[in-house]
Amino acid sequence: MPELPEVHALAADLGARLTGRTIDRLDVVSFAVLKTFDPPASALSGHVVTGVSRHGKFLDIATDAGIHLVMHLARAGWIRWRESAPVPSGRPNKGPLAARLVLDDGSGIDITEAGTKKSLAIYVVTDPATVPGIARLGPDPLAPGFTEATLAGILAGQGRAQIKGVLRNQSLIAGIGNAYSDEILHAAHMSPFKPASFTPEETARLFEAMQTTLREAVARADGVAASELKKEKKSGLRVHGRTGEACPVCGDTVREVIFADSTLQYCPTCQTGGKPLADRVLSRLLK
């Protein structure tokens, strides 16, 4: 799933390609992805893109008519730039293509989603704040106003909730998902199952790890084309997705915990005092 750094880079890449260009049309191939009906998708036609921005993990393509094309790529969605008009495949509604934004010269973007579990969502709105997922977003961790005190206030309201879940909760902190929560906790030397009732020293350590991890990932992705972002993300991860490999910090073997629909990765030496976590949600090996 693309998270804050990748969506940030996608917004920059698409902004450079789309800003000032005129939209010919939005073709919705998989009608389940379009979550709104007013304005209709056809309302985008003929309007000029004025910019591309990010809200958490949401992409926002704005036009001169005040109409926004908002996308959430979910677990398996992606965007591919097309230099020219598409060649008809003769297989309508087949393959990963979910929607296609076509510019007036035939170039544009293909919005795709792999796999059978379809969660990609597209909204055509006059105000991005009306998109339910955006309306529920917590503060952005890279915003100037997100301080150590902001994080302390969020943690104070979560009691003994596990910190891994707190970091991933979009209503509390926008943009962090499964991968970067693993990376942040590894950098902070904290168990993913640690309760959120932190001391001031622990809060400072988590804040520093969050800022460093996300800002370094954003810097690595800066200027990287959309087609290369997935590879870049994977190459920069130290523990997430690296089960069985050596931790780059201490050399211990990276372990994982498997849940019903996801996994997490961690280093026992760096994060749990050398103790492997039980492979179940209710593990209480916290220190």
Automatic annotation (TrEMBL):
Keyword NAD appears in the UniProt entry: no
InterPro entries (UniProt xref): FPG_cat (IPR012319), FPG_N (IPR035937), H2TH_FPG (IPR015886), Ribosomal_uS13-like_H2TH (IPR010979), Znf_DNA_glyclase/AP_lyase (IPR000214), Znf_FPG/IleRS (IPR010663)
Domain Formamidopyrimidine-DNA glycosylase catalytic: 2-120
SUPFAM superfamilies: Glucocorticoid receptor-like (DNA-binding domain) (SSF57716), N-terminal domain of MutM-like DNA repair proteins (SSF81624), S13-like H2TH domain (SSF46946)
Residue span, FPG-type domain: 238-272
Keyword tags: DNA damage, DNA repair, DNA-binding, Glycosidase, Hydrolase, Lyase, Metal-binding, Multifunctional enzyme, Zinc, Zinc-finger
Catalyzed reactions per annotation: Hydrolysis of DNA containing ring-opened 7-methylguanine residues, releasing 2,6-diamino-4-hydroxy-5-(N-methyl)formamidopyrimidine
Cofactor(s) named in the record: Zn(2+)
Gene3D superfamilies: 1.10.8.50, MutM-like, N-terminal
Pfam families the record matches: Fapy_DNA_glyco (PF01149), H2TH (PF06831), zf-FPG_IleRS (PF06827)
Family, similarity comment: Belongs to the FPG family.
Protein's name according to its UniProt entry: Formamidopyrimidine-DNA glycosylase
